[in-house]
Write a structure and sequence with these properties.
Number of strands: 0
Shape: rod-shaped
Structural class: mainly alpha
Radius of gyration: 24 Å
Helix content: 55-70%
Mean pLDDT: 74
Distance between the termini: 60 Å
Low-confidence stretches: 1-7, 119-142
Oligomer: single chain
Strand content: under 5%
Length: about 140
């Protein structure tokens, strides 16, 4: 087996372990024993591979957190847009949701008013694919 094949196998091994593939399946594809796959996954053998698996998993978790944060910002913008409307039950629920969320997130409630008065909502950047009436607040999830 050449060095390039080992590198290729390590990359495949890292991806399969990061994907959570069964050890038997990984063993069949890579030619390693099931017990060796377990040792590598635990970091008892070939720690570099184990470290790479950890890095891949952490990168995936961070990408998921980033995507969730973007989505949460879009939902919060939809709540703010709906809450700023003149009246109605849905607007009231959205205002309650926003204030409750800000109170939960803020260590100093006095800063809440500064946050609320910081400026207008960026109406030029609507929530991705969400009309305000379709936001969670209109579904009673406040």
């Amino acid at each position: 087996m050449s060095v390039s094949e080992v590198v290729h196998d390590d990359r495949l091994l890292v991806q399969m372990l990061a994907d959570g593939a069964p050890y038997r399946q990984i063993a069949k594809i890579t030619g390693l024993s099931v017990s060796m796959i377990g040792k590598i996954a635990r970091g008892d053998n070939r720690r570099v591979v184990s470290h790479q698996v950890h890095e891949v998993k952490e990168a995936r978790r961070q990408a998921l957190r980033d995507a969730a944060a973007r989505r949460a910002a879009d939902l919060m913008n939809a709540h703010v847009e709906e809450g700023l409307k003149a009246g109605g039950e849905t607007a009231r629920k959205c205002r309650e949701f926003i204030i409750g969320h800000l109170l939960e997130q803020d260590d100093n409630p006095a800063d809440l008013f500064d946050t609320l008065l910081a400026g207008p909502v960026d109406a030029a950047r609507p929530a991705a694919g969400i009309k305000p009436k379709e936001a969670l607040c209109s579904q009673g999830a406040v």
